[in-house]
């Protein structure tokens, strides 16, 4: 599955994967179950790598930078995206601008 907005809860069965575009600062909350979150690829020299972390019920992954994140269910899981806190002066980019930034990152 590929999502770009999942503010409502999403249920995943063991073995299912979800790919979602997250803005920097957005949190991914595990409401139930256990998931593995694979961050967008990063480069060190000429080597690409992705960080993989396991999150249990009640834990949250906060995206340090924007990009496509993969969520793998290790057990039946219920997850929800929490938007980044709004700053008082910044305007939220349009969905098209946001998608272009994520695709070009």
- How large, in whole angstroms, is the Cα Rg? 14 Å
Shape: globular
Fraction in beta strands:
over 45%
Give the helices and strands as they follow along the chain. EEEEEEEEEEEH
Strands in their spatial order, largest beta sheet: 1-3-10-5-8
Structural class: mainly beta
- Main sheet, how many strands, which sense, barrel? 5 strands, mixed
Ends apart, CA distance between termini:
21 Å
**Low-pLDDT sequence parts:** none
Description:
Helix content is 10%, strand content 47%. A hairpin with a 2-residue loop joins strand 6 and strand 7. The two termini are 21 Å apart. With 105 residues, the protein is mainly β.
Question: SSE layout and pairings?
Answer:
Layout: E1 2-3, E2 10-12, E3 17-22, E4 27-32, E5 34-38, E6 42-44, E7 47-49, E8 52-56, E9 60-62, E10 67-73, E11 77-82, H1 95-104
Parallel strand pairs: 1-3
Antiparallel strand pairs: 2-11, 3-10, 4-9, 4-11, 5-8, 5-10, 6-7
